[in-house]
Amino acid sequence: MKILELNQESFSLKNIILKFDELNHNEMISLQKKLYRNGSLTRLAPDSLLVVLTIDDLAKLINLFENDEDKKMLEVIYKRHQIIWSGKNFNFDLTRKSIVYSIVNVTPDSFYDGNPDNLNLSHILKRVEADLENGASVLELGGKSSKPGYDDISPEEEWNRLKEPILELKKNFPKAIFAVDTDEAYVMERVLDAGVDIINDIDGFDTNDKLKVVEKYQPALVAMNNGRAGFSYADNVYEELPLFFENKKEELLQLGLKAEQIVIDPGVGFFNGDSGSDSLERVKSTEILSRIGLPLMIAISRKSFMGKLFNAQGDERLFSSLVLEAQMVADGGRILRVHDVKETKRLLDAIEIYKEF
Q1: pLDDT recorded at residue 149
Q2: C-alpha to C-alpha distances, 250 to 79, 222, 262, 264, 324, nearest whole angstrom
């Protein structure tokens, strides 16, 4: 038996194309039995089969093989598609399991939970404690709103909002992984000095000052394309985003980062259009972007495009968020940036149970 992976120029968690060649009669019967539930299974010739597998299908198939040589060939293919996100204090294997990445707003004017209490230290500590108990793997602090039409504040004011909470959170939760959402190099440098693990930039590290901070500190990071700067490579989302992120990946690697430190985010909900269609196209770009082979963030929690497209208002957006997040996980998204930690963790647990059978 020969096992060949086709389309090796890209990665995938959803469409791994394998060709089994030179099968004898018994191998053909055995392989067909192993894959009888797979609707893509195609007999190309009397001794040849073609099949398209998800990463979970592949993992299960490996466990069904008894021949060590065949098993090793499949394990090599599996390893090529592994998705790891790592930083100085963490290492997440996201190949088959997604994680919850909690939004902790330290700002009174967030689009969803804007509240003066967000600036209260005891409120922040209680929120983080609850999110950790409910299953958050990463906690992200944001010192200013980035919603469409937001009122900007100075980097100094943003840092002043973040400084005390970061220091107290690091003291109270020393093993927790913290991120900060900021588009300011000044703030990036100060939060990294304070011990933050991850920087999330909605503008995708688009200035020399930000890139200098990345080169100096070598942090784990999240790079977004939010659409506000327009298109540079194509005239549509589905071609623009892969080209943008391939170039961004190379730019960051040249600064000394490893691929495992880089997460990409398609930037859902930042384009202030009337219909919300740009946001939905970005949601539907998940599978295409997963082919780059980097961890992919799902950041759609309760965003306003759901009201425009689905007439989902207020708390109704939790339901539409969970529905779309489930589809994006199936398409290869692995880091769910959310307001509703408990509900999202239950969604991910349900997906894991579903995949067992």
Answers
A1: 60
A2: 22, 14, 11, 13, 30
Q: Looking at domain 82-354, does it have CATH number 3.20.20.20? A: yes
Domain boundaries, the chain: 1-79, 82-354
The CATH topology of domain 1-79 is: Gyrase A; domain 2 (3.30.1360)
From its phi and psi, is residue 184 left (phi > 0), alpha (psi between -120 and 50) or beta?
A: beta
pLDDT tens digits for 302-340? 998 998 888 888 889 999 999 999 999 999 999 999 999
- The reported pLDDT for the residue numbered 288 is 98
Tell me the pLDDT tens digit for each residue of 233-269.
Answer: 999 999 999 999 999 999 999 999 999 999 999 999 9
Q: What does R_g of the chain's alpha carbons equal in angstroms? A: 22
Measured distance CA(55)–CA(61) in Å, rounded: 10
Say how far apart CA 14 and CA 28 lie, in whole Å.
24
For residues 72 and 131, what is the distance between their CA atoms, to the nearest angstrom?
Answer: 40
- d(C-alpha 93, C-alpha 83), whole Å: 6
pLDDT of 51:
98
CA-CA distance, 57 to 34, in Å (whole number)? 11
Name residue 327's amino acid: Q
Closest CA to 102 of 314, 340, 343, 320: 340
| 334 in Cβ contact with 351 (< 8 Å) | no
Closest CA to 16 of 333, 287, 236, 213: 287
Backbone angles phi, psi at 167, to 5 degrees: -60, -45
